[in-house]
């Protein structure tokens, strides 16, 4: 039976592009769910939009010397285009700077204000006198009172996840000037969450104990157990939605208050565009509301927004909030400020027509209940060993053999053997199996069940060997190919939520699923129809669904990350302090000479060492130097260098080293020679 679904995906901040952490945490699972619900005949509104009023946007604008509007206009276009190219099937992607959102958020605030749902208070807030402004959200950093993280923000500690007020921070400092802020009184309006504590306990702690994810339920329970406190809904800022009250000049709606209302305004915008009534999607008890978010947004979507909706009185509450944990990258936490990320626009450029590869890799390794790690090697393995070798290989064999034996016309089967009947029965079971995983928000599990269907196809062909039987049992081969084509047809439909581009391509190859095709299977058809693709139907020629990802392509991506690592190291390079004072007599003991490397070779079984012959002007001597990871032997022959010639000899791996080559390291970590630049400096000249 069909049902109405309002599916929301967290509004991304428009202060930078989308990266794989956003995709794995929110947008890929949300898209899988929305596509699945449409395929199973439901009425779906899949809603998202740009969150354009956050403090990170004003910080970005200050850094770039432009207006916040310039920043949001730039990144709204960037993000929207990336989502479209990646195949995220939003019914509407809006923005919170739109008039319809300003009107909706203002109206929502006014309704709560008129119902006396706010508490008006004058409180002391952190103020930066030099910047002449109050420090909201991320304009202030300090030590988290919960875990001791010294880089916590004024709204949240990203280390322990605790939601904070700026005044909670220990040793706060302004993110604008670096100054220690003072306290200054200002008037604001607060949502008294403590007033809604009993409702939230009943609704979540008792009502959703069994059907919400443990990581979500646990965080919410911890918050409620700790006791809820009033939360400000306004801020002293000049960027945002003005507070719609007299005497509130210079104040805007706090971003956490206006952003979730963006789901409502985006639904209104969509409904107006397509000629629908928006209200059932938010106010009909038969509608199922599902929020897809990352774990850093759990409190806002499971406590604060529901309290707002409950206080307003006419809205439904979320049926589920299947938040994911965080995705790490190559063993390290994703960091946009340090460029330790895989950016979606760059991926789409570097891997054209491979949207589904990233979708699959992120889904198969999704951080559903704990933080997970994305590595480029795993990405390559998922593509080459699963998409190419299992899914793609099966489809290619089926299509090639059908064209080879029957000119692309599906043969009529003869009597089915036990293995044929078992295989056909197994196909019919897969929609239910995959549905069960998706309904429980286990998308990783669901993606592997899809791959198991492709494995079934490969095993069936490998066991039945039609390429051998074609010479002796032509009639049997017709049945084998008919059964194999049923698997291929099922894959074309069931892969759509996970691999939408592949699904479209496969349907084109099989000549099914289009508006003018006689074959157009729904999700439920896979379970009940005996002939998903009928005898006599003509399919197209074989095309490769997936291509291998080569080592060279992975090396390019790893080198990008290494470049980020070097840049971060350079940015954070600390100049070593001066060592203890040395006397002039101490210095004169050092005998530094100009020398030339005349021979260089690697030390056997030593990764870092080169064995050098150096003409010091006094003699030609052996020096062992730990520079093999930075220089090839042939690169440095003939190189003039500075040599400490009177260093006490030392045996290294059985080779007597008689001196030291002077080196230094750049901010990027690169070794360079400390050498004389004057071409007239001859070997043996002393350096003083």
UniProtKB/TrEMBL annotation:
Record's catalysed reaction(s): tRNA(Met) + L-methionine + ATP = L-methionyl-tRNA(Met) + AMP + diphosphate
GO terms, molecular function: methionine-tRNA ligase activity
Stored InterPro entries: aa-tRNA-synth_I_CS, Anticodon_Met, Met-tRNA-synth_bsu_C, Met-tRNA_ligase_1, Met-tRNA_synth, Methionyl/Leucyl_tRNA_Synth, MetRS_core, MetRS_Zn
Subunit structure: Homodimer.
Main location class: cytoplasm
Protein's name in the database: Methionine--tRNA ligase
Cofactor: Zn(2+)
Annotated transmembrane regions: none
Lineage: superkingdom: Bacteria
